[in-house]
Every structure is written in C-alpha cells, then in structure tokens.
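Quick one, T. Sequence first:
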Amino acid sequence: MKSQMQRRDFLRSGLVLGGAGMLPKSLWAMNLPASATSLHAGPMVGCPAYRSATIWLQTLGPAKVQIRYQAQGGKGSMQHSETVQTDAGNFYAANIVLDELQPDTRYQTQVLLNDQALPSAGPLLRTPSLWTFRAPPPDFKVLTGSCAYINDPRYDRPGKPYGGGYEIYEPMRQEQADLMVWLGDNLYFREADFASPAGMALRYWSDRAFAPLQRFLNSTPQIAIWDDHDYGPNDSDSSFVFKEAALRLFQSYWPNPSFGLPGTPGIFTQQSVYDADFFLLDDRWYRDADAAPESRGKVMFGKAQLDWLKNALLNSHARFKFIAAGGQMLNDDDAYEGWNLYPEERQEFLDWLADNQIRGVIFLSGDRHISELMRRPRPRYSGKHDYPLWEITSSPLNSGPAKGDHNPYRVPGTLVEQRNYCSLHFRGIGRERHLLVRCKDVRGRSLWEQRISSQDLGYEAT
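Structure tokens:
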C-alpha cells in the first residue's frame, strides 16, 4: 500500500525548476520499493583530495545511506560519514563526503544502507601524497575517453546497432589509473529523451547501471565534462530549453569538485593531480549556434568562462596544463563542431596564450569518433616559450567509429578509426619529466604512443 501511495505521489508531484528548464520534482512513476534494499548504481569515487574524498552512489528507492571507512590494515579508528537520505527529487543519488582523511593513505570503505552493511566491500580509495615542497611529483596515470553509446533498441534509430565494444571497460579497469577524465557524450540522449526532463532523467538512470560500465566506475576515480549528447539534442547550444534540467542531472550524477562559479552557471571546473592541472570546460551552456554568422563574433565558451580560464592558467604552477572540452580546438579542418567554427574567439585566446607565455599547455578533446594527436606550430610568434601546441582527441569508447578528415596538424600514424581510449602517463624527475600518451584498443593493446617532453611544452632544457 505504501509503495502504491508513493507512486501516486510521483504522479501528483509538481515542478521544482521554473520556466523552460522545468524538471519533475520526483523522477517518474516507477515501481520502486518504499524503502531500498540495494543500490541501483555505484559506489563511484570522485578524485580524492588530501584530506577528503567524495563517493557517489544511487539507491533503488528511498534510503538512508552512509559510508564506513578505515585506513587499510586497520590503522586508525573506524570512521563514519554523515547519513544522507536519498529521494526521488535527487534521483535517489547521493554524493557522500568522507573527511578527516590523511594524505598518502589507502582507505577501505563499506556502504551502509538503512544501517545495514552491503555484502560487498565499497571501493578502495587512495589519497594523494603531500609532495609539494617535500619531494618531486610522483609518477601517475590518467585515462581519457568520450562517446559512450549504450544500445537501447526501444529508443534507438532503426538499423544496425550504433553502440558496442563494451569490453573496453575491463582493460580500463585493469589500468588502475589515478583518474578517469570523461570528455563528453558520456551518454546519448535519444529523441524520446530530450523531449522532456523526465526522459533525460530516465536515460541517466538506465545507462549508469550498465554492468560493464559499473565495474569500471567502481574501480577508478572519475570526473567529467559534457558535450552535446549528454547535454541535449545533437549539436545543441545555449538555446536548449531544458539546459537547467541537464545541469541538475549532471550535478547529481558526477562527483566533480565544482560546477561553474557563483553567478556563472555551467559545468566548468578545475582538478589538480600532482603536477597536472585539468581545466575542464563547458562547450554548450554559452555556445552560439554553429550556424550563427562569424561576423557577429560568435562564441563557443563565452567571455565569463574564458576570463576564468585565463586567470586560472596564470595562477597555475603545474608543469602540465590540460584544457579539456568536448569538441576539437586546434583542427582547422573540423567540419563538425570544432572551435575553428568560432574563429574570433579562438584566435583571441591563442594570441593570449602566446602573449602571456603560458608553458605546459595541452588540449584534450573528444566528440569526433576518432582519436588522433595534433601538433600545431605557432610560426607567427618568436618568443622562447612559443612551443607548438598539442591536442589529444580521444574518441569513441562505445559509439560507432568515424573516418578522419584532412587535419593539417595530425601527427602521422596517430589516426585511430576504431573504438579506443587513451592513457596519460606522467613520468620522470626534473628536466626529464615527461608525458607518455598511449592510445589503446578495446582489449587494451597499444595502437600508438607519443612521448611529450618538458622541452616540447616550452620549458628550458636545463
């Protein structure tokens, strides 16, 4: 009886976001228990900080959830997070903060659901070592990928299934990386989904619980940006009427460190991992339509976001500075949704990079259903720090692969027209510090690799 009353409440519930971005207060009318006895998805760890970490999870119905945690090997006392109540208004999802952690320590976790420990252990999390002013940065590894289409015949377009290669998540899990950076199109809204916020919520609900993906999400810290397909319709821009609903869903499903700035909405943020800073951009919220005339100074990122990025780059002391966005940024032949379609905004930023001699910049992108490495010379500049600019495009994980274009800056031998992911290995000490980029197929076999030295990024050889 209580479950039936709960479902009626779903149907009667109002709307919590006003205007065109309305999202149902509760998820949708579903046959869920009155009190959850299991998880629907998760647990998943965000990128741990030195003294805290966030664990995301989602319950199969309303529940009280808590994380019990202790340093591995029984060191220190058993600790408990705050208790969080999951409900339909937040998609039964929770981001639970673990505090009073110590640097360079592994913690075993356990999920408590309605005060009962779940049968399987929670994820093992490791806090970073406190290296600044104490030691050289350690070696570490980051994974990247984008375009994760999971087939759903009820709503897919007719014809050959578009998704596949789901075995890719097992070698990614075995990488035991320090972080995974999702580069957008992390799921695909279908036409039936983006017609309403409830439809969008249903897509998140079904895709997040996909078993092969779940095993990877349980194993590796995760952060993400979005692109058009997990924001709205194909090639969507700032005019998408359900953008507020899309933002709320993204915030509920990803344990990112932050989302935009006060008074400047969006999903852009910054994440530091030892001597690498990742500047994660939002290429949708402020975007003018691709078809808008260039003479009007159309933008992909917008002034407020780029002002933030410039200040953050000036403030960064990291050797490696990654600028990540869904679409390609340096390719002049990108006929789809690259930054080349916004020439005034792009050129102004590239000029600013050169004028301010920002060293260590590497661009990261997805979207294209190919992977490739770019090396773009800057012949108009003569400063000693005006090194060629690099961009790593990593796509697709599960979507249908595409063909490459005539990208003038592609490093020969790096075009991949099959499902793949990329690994970024940060290695070495001092002037020997370097990045080793590897592109790998669905079985984890290396397709190509490229060493990018500190000198390749504008640093002195001595």
